[in-house]
Predict the 3D structure of the following.
Amino acid sequence: MTDMKNWRKNMYPNRNLFEKYITKDEIELIHEYTLKILSEVGVIIESDAAAEVFKKNGARVEGHKIFIDEALLKKGLSTVPKEFDIYSPSGNLTLGESAPTICAGPVAPTTIQDFENNTYRPANLKDVEQYYILQETSKVISMPTHSCQNTDDLDKSGDDFHTPQAAMGLKYCQKPIYQGNTITPINYKKGSLIEANRRLVKLHREFYDIWDKPVTMSNCCVLSPLAIGAEVADTIIGAVQENQPVIIISCSMTNLTCPPTLASAIVQDNANILAGIVLTQLISPGVGAVYGSVTSPTDMRTVQLATGAPEAVLMQMGLVAMGRYYNLPVRSGVSATTAVDLDFQCGAESMMTLMTGMLGKTDFILNAAGAYGGYNLGSLENFVLDEENIAYLKRVNQGLDITEDKLYFDLIAKTGPRGNFLKGRTPKDYRKENYFPSIFVREGGSPADVIEKNGNLVARARSVVNERLESYELPDVTTTQKKLLNEYLPEGYKYDL
């Protein structure tokens, strides 16, 4: 076990916000009990192929139950790269210790808060299109995500209605796309899900004409407690066989799918996540793999996932610490809230949960904008408001610039006591050091006059949305690319040829 302790020596610099919440001794204790869980309790991975991989690498395997000892854990984690690139027509996107936090869009929401009609309604393909447009045109979302999946107006009569959703992303976005939706026997009925995931990678390669580099990344959520479901196992295997990076995440619920205490949730999730990461490396050593968690407490008064609770932040801080302990790229944080309206609760919880990833300088944040109501509810207005929160936190992360020339002693001396600094031109440093929001207001005077001039918060957000949607232009692609996507795009969204 002492050899494992040395892994901490290379923790990412200036990314250790978690140290305010968890000590080195506590990290070591969680690691010690993680080893006990992995070696004595085991993890079920519902895949014959995965079981065979572990068996070939010396693990004790009982059916689908895998036991991982310290040596095998160390072997698996030793080849995980600290950073890697993902490629698309827009260039390469770096994930890891030398790069800023990647923010990705929302996976769900299945219900839309429609402010124009003052109602809640099921998401539809038009929402899918518009979410892609906002993600593609966003200054803070680096990686669009499949949103509003399995809408009622999506044709589900065929044997594959997963690929049409993926094709929508390729049509509207040039940024690399995050595969937030898992391929399942429900949305893909052609046979092997491993091969289905490999085919999805090949579709991206063919469309991009990028053949020898990572072109996408997949979301792989473990099945608490201590399992990886068949569909997710197939996603992992298919993706890494094609040398594509994956994020292994936990989404446990205290007192339901994990024990009641925050510490017990952290240790169980840690074991589950590590098992998935080891699997990636035993199949393809050096493939990109990210350690992640969005585990949240359960409010047992309603038996509901409390995604915006302070305890969710604390558990994610603990799991970030464990990911850093093993020198892994880390996913953490979301813009998460159980609020069912675009209200004070929504803004407060969303900002608090975003802070985990942004101020903790984790490597990747999913659901960074555009979802609330426990991930199931969304609106375009919420998307641009979350963008504003992200921009605020990005500015905080830039920190203070304290040098002698920034102290402006000569100006202070010239102005003297009871003077003011409003004379002359606005200094360049002022414009450089301050973030100016596009939606939030900072005007004085009568509140009624400010609202009359600018509109309420939702109206201001809607104005930004409309401007982005109206100015968007489809990426310029070749006829060959159009024909390729037309094989999969839903009716009404195919290219005119």
About this structure: Residues 1-497 form a domain with the TIM Barrel fold (CATH 3.20.20.480).
